[in-house]
């Protein structure tokens, strides 16, 4: 299990210490001795906190060295990186995201030259031969037609306007009673969920691939900041309402990375939580404090500075520095500590070498709540790329687990009503 840095105390989660308030207050004022003394650490803490909650453009950090014609078609020579040297099927996005190619198996790898030669399975858009830099992605397909499926373009009413979504029917003639709602991760888009659609379709589920606030498709939040799940869950609730209005009786939430945190919040807070039959979460954020501590350590940020950043997100005094409209309650999103409160059947798929969201809290959640949570570890997939390295295993696990969860209930009298469910009480 990955090592984790724990909060100093429960009280620290609720309020800042006097010393920390002095540092933040002095930094805000800009002229006090406390501000001068604490400015350096506070400035770094502010930068760290803002990075976590601020949407940012993708960085083209993968070098493309050459495109050649091999015996079996196009091949690409890439600089060897921890991503590009993993076998499987992935994507290269280039030309600022306007270009997209699906990259296949490794043909050869030269550790001495630090290069890797891979097959190019398909170029969906752009001129790959002209690309010099790109970003690597697990979102393999550009749209539903790339996997041979028809989709309806639909709009979901959310705060601030309408959020575009794809609706892919399992059977074009009639709505399915259970829908899969795909919730992508931080910095990703609805493309991420296309990898799961065929599995959902095999199970007879209609699939709704949604957008949510600040993802570039849905309306942005007024503060333009991620809520790390504390605000985005309302957009998932709107998607559930759309599903119920269009024939669904129940839903299964699929979530990747931060999409997992959003799905957990939806299952906890939504007035429609009774119709959420199951959660399928891939590399989910179970505990944001753990994730932030991990990134602080990776970036050699001192522990105290990292804690300042966490506390700024959760305390009203930090709002002017972070830009958040409201504090983020990280403790409420710590499902490792709240394990016994999770009452929705949940499948967790997580690679043990995930260097972005450590797998430890996923394993711990399953250990603490085995009645509700099943944990399936992968190896060598890094972050949210479990399907990419072993699609057959991923699909087999999800299909088998969901077949059990979707089986008829033992007591039909306890099933969810066919019509719109009664709200399960006000959302917290």
From TrEMBL:
Protein keywords: Membrane, Transmembrane, Transmembrane helix
Keyword hit for Transmembrane helix: yes
Classification of source organism: Bacteria, Bacillati, Actinomycetota, Actinomycetes, Micrococcales
Residues covered by region (Disordered): 406-428
Highest rank taxon of the organism: Bacteria
Pfam name, any one: Peptidase_S9
Keyword check for Transmembrane: yes
Domain Peptidase S9 prolyl oligopeptidase catalytic span(s) in chain numbering: 224-406
UniProt xrefs under SUPFAM superfamilies: alpha/beta-Hydrolases
Transmembrane segments: 22-49
Listed name of the protein: Pimeloyl-ACP methyl ester carboxylesterase
